[in-house]
């Protein structure tokens, strides 16, 4: 049962403009939390949204949704008026858990610095399943002879993905390799079954810088790939998916990343953004190798059973 001084309302048609104003007042300049909650509200697969009131005053919101790309989890987000304690979160999670269309596992993502929410999720049986770092790399010319002294002695060929757009066999190999590595990095929240065309659209989309996204070829086999994207931030690029055919060839991925850094310099770009999940072996290796700036960290939590 909820505490007597709390009431919960199920919102059938959320007023987006009102919610935007509430978020601005409650999360201040926290753009991620603001966007994460609104994404859940806007998405066509939204399941439900609840309001929590204390003595007639709105003090909390929770919304839940499903992802077509990762259909195994029910995503949710909580925002509350600044307060002491965890009572508001408790009644919101209870309301969500009691909604008939909610399937486990539940999953949410918060800042590591959101200590109150972190403590709450741990207390009610959520487990941390992933950390996501979002560091920035200031570009600096890389001398391949110094950083990769054996580079010239290897029988490999570096090409940008522009060169394989009309090469059906290599394009299929790249798409399959990207899909396989992505699936390996997301076993805790499995990707759904999607068409080859869907994966092709994700890799060769309009944000992908095809002349700055590279592959390594040897004997007509793709040994490594590294994608690069335009950023919403002026004078920035963004690192995309990267990986290799074999984990033992991780140096090939690092060579391609270095090539992207030099490509950025050639194009007058001073910074490259990254989004590094700890479940992604290749992006973690990139983070370890290159001198990224200190990064804010996101925590992803899951609750898989009602008994956890």
Features:
308 residues; alpha+beta; Aminopeptidase; eight-stranded mixed sheet; six-stranded mixed sheet; 14 strands; 33% helix; 28% strand; elongated
Would you kindly provide a written description of the structure presented here, covering whatever features stand out?
This protein has 308 residues and is an alpha+beta fold. Helices cover 33% and strands 28% of the residues. It has helices spanning 16-27, 31-42, 87-98, 115-123, 144-147, 168-185, 196-203, 250-266, 281-289, and strands spanning 6-10, 46-54, 57-66, 74-80, 106-111, 127-133, 136-138, 157-160, 214-218, 221-230, 236-244, 271-273, 276-277, 297-303. The strands form two sheets. The protein has an eight-stranded mixed sheet with strand order 1-2-3-4-5-14-6-13, sandwiched between helices. Strands 7-12-11-10-9-8 form a six-stranded mixed sheet, with helices on both faces. Helix 1 packs antiparallel against helix 2 (31-42), helix 6 packs across helix 7 (196-203) and helix 8 (250-266) packs across helix 9.
Residues in helix, %:
25-40%
CATH topology of the largest domain, what is it called?
Answer: Aminopeptidase
For the largest beta sheet, what order do the strands appear in spatially? Answer: 1-2-3-4-5-14-6-13
State the distance separating the first and last CA atoms.
20 Å
Determine the CATH superfamily of the largest domain: Gcn5-related N-acetyltransferase (GNAT)
Report strand %: 25-35%
Give the strand tally.
14
Q: Count of helices?
A: 9
Could you name the ranges where pLDDT drops below 50 across 5 or more consecutive residues? none
Structural class, from secondary structure content?
alpha+beta
User: What number of structural domains do the residues give?
Assistant: 2
At CATH level 2, the architecture of the largest domain is 3-Layer(aba) Sandwich
CATH class of the largest domain: Alpha Beta
What is the radius of gyration? Answer: 22 Å
What sort of overall outline do the alpha carbons produce when their principal axes are compared?
A: elongated
In N-to-C order, the SSE pattern is EHHEEEHEHEEHEHHEEEHEEHE
Q: Major beta sheet, specifics?
A: 8 strands, mixed
The overall pLDDT average reads 94
């Amino acid at each position: 049962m909820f505490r007597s001084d709390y009431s919960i309302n199920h919102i059938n048609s959320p007023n987006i403009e009102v919610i935007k104003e509430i978020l601005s007042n409650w999360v201040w300049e926290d753009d991620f939390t603001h966007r994460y909650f609104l994404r859940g509200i806007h998405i066509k697969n939204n399941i439900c949204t609840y309001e929590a009131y204390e003595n007639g005053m709105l003090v909390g919101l929770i919304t839940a949704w499903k992802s077509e790309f990762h259909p195994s989890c029910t995503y949710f987000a909580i925002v509350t008026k600044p307060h002491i304690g965890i009572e508001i979160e408790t009644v919101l999670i209870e309301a969500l858990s009691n909604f008939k269309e909610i399937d486990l596992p539940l999953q949410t993502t918060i800042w590591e610095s959101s200590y109150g929410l972190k403590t709450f999720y741990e207390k009610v049986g959520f487990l941390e399943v992933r950390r996501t770092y979002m560091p920035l790399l200031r570009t600096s010319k890389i001398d391949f002879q110094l950083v990769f002294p054996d580079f010239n002695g290897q029988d490999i060929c570096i090409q940008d993905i522009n060169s394989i757009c009309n090469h059906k066999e290599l394009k299929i190999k790249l798409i399959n390799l990207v899909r396989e590595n992505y699936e390996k990095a997301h076993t805790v929240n499995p990707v759904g079954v999607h068409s080859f065309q869907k994966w092709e659209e994700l890799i060769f989309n309009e944000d992908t810088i095809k002349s700055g996204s590279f592959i390594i070829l040897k004997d007509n086999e793709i040994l490594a790939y590294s994608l690069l994207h335009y950023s919403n931030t002026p004078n920035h690029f963004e690192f995309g998916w990267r990986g290799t055919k074999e984990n033992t060839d991780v140096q090939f991925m690092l060579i391609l990343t270095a090539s992207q850094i030099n490509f950025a310099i050639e194009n007058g770009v001073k910074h490259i953004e990254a989004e590094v999940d700890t479940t992604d072996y290749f992006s973690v290796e990139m983070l370890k190798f290159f001198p990224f700036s200190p990064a804010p960290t996101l925590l992803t939590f899951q609750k898989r059973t009602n008994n956890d």
